[in-house]
């Protein structure tokens, strides 16, 4: 076993956090460096690095918590919208190696971008390449 992640330490009560939701398997707390008021992280209590590592029952609980919390977070800070995202892997910007879903309240004219802003240059894919990708994901 490696070092416990910072989020495991929060789940264990060893590091303080502003906890807004808790079940046997899932915890949500305010981000320590919020991108907006109400920026919340939803995490499984068990340490799993990537979405692909989550056991089915934990994934179900995690996404149920996200579903429950999205309106609560948005309404709590009187936001106009919410960006929901996961940096799933280092190349996607994941810094804490413990699955976490960001709920970032958004406000009209807040100067932020859509999810589309996270990618660099867009690929120009041929029909063959699209066919191939479609097939690989399907199977
Ligand atoms: P990532 O880049 O891995 O998707 O995001 C990690 C997030 O965790 C960041 O938004 C960061 O502010 C937050 N974070 C890191 N350490 C702590 C901590 O000790 N407590 C809380 N509440 N948030 C943290």
From TrEMBL:
Active site per the UniProt annotation: 100
Single GO BP term: nucleotide metabolic process
Gene Ontology MF terms in the entry: catalytic activity
Region (Disordered): 116-139
Comp. bias intervals (Acidic residues): 126-139
Residue ranges annotated as motif Histidine triad motif: 98-102
InterPro entries assigned: Histidine_triad_CS, Histidine_triad_HIT, HIT-like, HIT-like_sf
Name of the protein this chain belongs to: HIT family protein
């Amino acid at each position: 076993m490696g070092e416990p992640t910072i989020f495991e330490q929060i789940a264990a009560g060893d590091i303080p956090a502003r906890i807004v939701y808790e079940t046997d398997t899932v915890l949500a707390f305010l981000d320590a460096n919020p991108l907006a008021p109400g920026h919340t992280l939803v995490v499984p209590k068990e340490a799993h690095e990537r979405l692909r590592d989550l056991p089915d029952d934990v994934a179900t609980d995690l996404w149920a918590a996200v579903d429950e919390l999205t309106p609560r977070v948005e309404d709590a800070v009187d936001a106009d919208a919410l960006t929901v995202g996961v940096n799933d892997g280092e190349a996607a910007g994941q810094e804490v190696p413990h699955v976490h879903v960001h709920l970032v309240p958004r406000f009209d004219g807040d100067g932020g971008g859509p999810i589309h802003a996270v990618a660099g240059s867009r690929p120009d894919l041929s029909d063959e390449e699209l066919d191939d990708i479609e097939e690989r994901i399907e199977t």
